Amino acid sequence: DKGNHRHFMEKEIHEQPEVISHTLANYLDFATGGVKLFETPIDFAKIDRLYISACGTAYLAGLIGKYWLERYARLPVDIDIASEFRYRELPIVPNSAALFVSQSGETADTLASLRYCKNAGIPIAAIVNVRDSTIARESNGIFPTLAGPEIGVASTKAFTCQLSIFASLAIRAGLDRGTLTREDAAAMVRSLSEVPGLIRDALKLESRIEAIARKLSEVRHVLYLGRDTNYPLALEGALKLKEISYIHAEGYAAGELKHGPIALIDKHMPVIVLAPSDRIFEKTVSNMQEVAARGGRIILITDEEGASRTSLDNIETIIMPKVPEFVAPIVYALPIQLLAYHTAVAMGTDVDQPRNLAKSVTVE
Ligand code: M6R
Fewer Cβ atoms within 10 Å of its own Cβ: the N or the C terminal residue of the chain? Predict the structure, then answer.
């Protein structure tokens, strides 16, 4: 049932404040600022390496998870696209564990990667949305996302719930490994507790985003740029847009611009920049200047402070609420989902069932 919404995707985008709250409540104690003693098949204090593997949007959640686990828990993470992982014959090191990410829990390549790790005898965990799925059953333990059924082919609420779990695991792993103090952890839990409210604020930008999307529906190619945890989000923005609007889109780490993609920039090429004002904001500004100098159109997604620190011609801004740096990718997922959604609606594509795609990819 779509309720008052035109599409399941729209409904699922709007459900995010609620489902993220439910998901986080499984792992965190907002009252005390602590982490709940949830069951985990992975002993974060003991392992030297974590293998993460998944497909599509779930893979991109894992990529953000890698940044967090390495930064806050000093835990080395290897991450692969599952279709590569399963065949590349990598050595599994001792004292390691594996974590798989899947909304459906039925993705063929992810399941094959899981079995490869199982064969190697290491502990297996999965972040899954469907609790009675094959991936859930074959894991030693699961971290369930409480997103509820996701019907739209484009993953939205499952993605932000996956990120919420990765953020919680980074805190848990940081405490277990002694890289975070109780105070650090409490501050991070506080940041996460703000996420549902910040997403509600971001949803208020919908009509502004819709206006920008109408113009986007007239172009053939779009580039997304971001740094640090906003880099995987740039990849996710491009995936979402191409999936449902059929506009060719690519995501790049902003620092890679001059290593190739800058050659594409002209006045027909909109560049969407994901840049909250954070410790590397200035670096991204200099990449934007390079785009502007070549006549590129910039759509900057930032906050008040970020907007006031950029003065460029030919720029449109989407002004987000100020978000704590740690949780920024969860909140900044909203404008990229809405941008893809409204672009597809403006183009009249089948948003919930885009051509050539299946919700669950059970064959390789
Ligand atoms: O069910 P899974 O999370 O394992 O699915 C993985 C991908 O097929 C999925 O995320 C796909 O990329 C989405 N359509 C993206 O919106």
Answer: N
As given in the structure block, the two tokens for residue 203 are 């949803």
Nearest CA to ligand 1 atom 14: 154
305-363 pLDDT, tens digit each: 999 998 887 799 999 999 999 999 999 999 999 999 999 999 999 999 998 998 888 88
The torsion angles phi and psi of 360, rounded to 5 degrees, stand at -130, 125
Ligand 1 neighbourhood includes 150 CB (under 6 angstroms): no
Q: What is the pTM of this model?
A: 0.97
**274-310, pLDDT tens digit by residue?**
999 999 999 998 999 899 989 899 999 999 999 999 8
pLDDT recorded at residue 28: 96
Q: What's the per-residue H, E or C state across the chain?
A: CCCCCCCHHHHHHHCHHHHHHHHHHCCEECCCCEECCCCCCCCCCCCCEEEEEECHHHHHHHHHHHHHHHHHHCCCEEEEEHHHHCCCCCCCCCCEEEEEEECCCCCHHHHHHHHHHHHCCCCEEEEECCCCCHHHHHCCEEEECCCCCCCCCCCCHHHHHHHHHHHHHHHHHHHHCCCCCHHHHHHHHHHHHCHHHHHHHHHCCHHHHHHHHHHHCCCCEEEEEECCCHHHHHHHHHHHHHHHHCCEEEEEEHHHHHHCHHHHCCCCCEEEEECCCCCCHHHHHHHHHHHHHCCCEEEEEEEHHHHHCCCCCCEEEEEECCCCHHHHHHHHHHHHHHHHHHHHHHHCCCCCCCCCCCCCCCCC
Which residue's C-alpha comes closest to atom 10 of ligand 1? 57
Regarding the beta carbon of 154 and ligand 1, being less than 6 Å apart is answered: yes
Whether 2 is catalytic is no
Burial 282-292 (b: 16+ CB within 10 A, else e): eebbebbebbb
Q: How far is the CA of 64 from the centre of ligand 1 (A)?
A: 16
In this prediction, the residues of the chain whose per-residue pLDDT falls under 70 are none
Rounded CA-CA distance 260/255 in Å is 10
Distance CA 91, CA 343 (A): 43
pLDDT of residue 311: 82
